[in-house]
């Protein structure tokens, strides 16, 4: 019985695991596309913007990329990092 409780708690813990943080200054297109509201084309736009303008100073700067608004940045705020 104790083994079943332990297994259940392990599986329940995995179900609630937080997605990994994404450094928007180093992430590739695939990683960026995993963000909420960011698909392949917006991820490519982020990389192109970063290449043209240099690294982002803060995650809020992501809203400077055409097609990405403040709401998208807010939805992903807990996953975004800038290093």
TrEMBL record:
One of its GO terms (biological process) is protein secretion by the type II secretion system. Transmembrane segments: none annotated. Residues 30-49, 60-79 form the Helix-hairpin-helix DNA-binding motif class domain. Keywords: DNA-binding, Signal. Pfam families: HHH_3. It comes from the Bacteria. This is ComEA family DNA-binding protein. The lineage of its organism: Bacteria, Pseudomonadati, Pseudomonadota, Gammaproteobacteria, Pseudomonadales.
């Amino acid at each position: 019985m104790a083994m079943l409780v332990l297994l259940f708690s392990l599986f329940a813990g995995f179900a609630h695991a937080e997605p990994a943080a994404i450094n928007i200054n180093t992430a590739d297109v695939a990683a960026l596309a995993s963000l909420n509201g960011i698909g392949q084309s917006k991820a490519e736009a982020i990389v192109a913007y970063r290449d043209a303008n240099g690294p982002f100073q803060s995650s809020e700067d992501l809203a400077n990329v055409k097609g990405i608004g403040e709401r998208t940045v807010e939805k992903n705020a807990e996953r975004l990092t800038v290093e």
